[in-house]
Amino acid sequence: MRFGKWLVLVMYLLVLTKFILFKQYPSLNLWQVTDKSQLALRWESANLIPFQSIRLFLAPSNLTPSIRLQNLAGNVLLFVPLGLLLPFWFHRCRRFFSVTGAAAGLSLFYEVVQLLFGFGSFDVDDLLLNTIGGMIGYGLFFLFKKRRRDQT
Fold first, then answer.
1. Percent of the chain surpassing pLDDT 70
2. Which residue, among 128, 101, 6, has the nearest Cα to 93 in the 3D structure?
3. pTM
4. Long-range CB contacts (within 8 A, 24+) of 69-76
5. Residue 52: CB partners within 8 Å, gap ≥ 6?
């Protein structure tokens, strides 16, 4: 069972990495990665204001519903499995704040990688939405655990 849970965790992280970092197939130019001016441009385009992009996706505009759904619900749904599976697999992660911290930490890692390597853009709202997804996953774990306890 140990191997199986690690295999599922690795597979989940690979799928998560694909969806977050490699949405499109960026042409990784080593010069752009090491060029400080490119990093400065990426930093300038980063969203550091909470709820700014969330408001953008919720406000009336020419954005298609699929783009709105992908950016809002997609960011939440990607992290629900993390919040659900961590407490099942790791005894230390059976507390709400442990799972929330793990989801926030993993999301921050992906956002920083996007900022440093230009695979996307740093967005504090993605961090918030991903963390909410982890919290929802933990809520599902909690409900499952409570239901099992009530059945015994």
1. 91
2. 101
3. 0.88
4. 72/129, 74/19, 75/125, 75/126, 75/129, 75/130, 75/133, 76/129, 76/130, 76/132, 76/133, 76/136
5. 125
Domain edges within the chain: 64-152
Contacts 24+ apart (CB under 8 A), 2-9: 5/89, 8/85, 9/85, 9/89
Model pLDDT, residue 91: 87
- Determine the Cα–Cα distance for residues 118 and 128; give it in Å rounded to an integer: 20
Compute the distance between CA of residue 97 and CA of residue 113 in angstroms, rounded to an integer. Answer: 24
Tell me the two tokens of residue 93. Answer: 């992660």
Task: Report the alpha-carbon distance of residue 59 to residue 29 in Å, rounded.
Answer: 35
Distances (CA, A) of 126 to 27, 109, 117: 23, 12, 17
Residue that wins the pLDDT comparison between 124 and 121: 124
Residue 30 has pLDDT above 70, yes or no: no
